[in-house]
Amino acid sequence: MAKKTIEEQVDDNSNMLNLIERDLETIKNNHLFHLEQDVSRLRQTVDKMDTRMWAILILLVSSIMAGMFGERLITLL
What we know:
The protein is mainly alpha-helical. The chain has a domain at 41-77. The chain is 92% helix and 0% strand. It is built from 1 helix and no strands. The termini are far apart.
């Protein structure tokens, strides 16, 4: 394989840099957009789960409290 001249090497490097820039643009404009959408959907799902867990916790505590107060009310009657 013959040695490349400096001009040929510069041209090769320029071509490679152009390819890298194009790939970075594709990643920036396309893939990151889709990742952002996925993260947004996950955030909404986690928020819904958080709300449901709080609702379950409130129902659990209120049922325990109702049971305790119900027993005391029955013993007073």
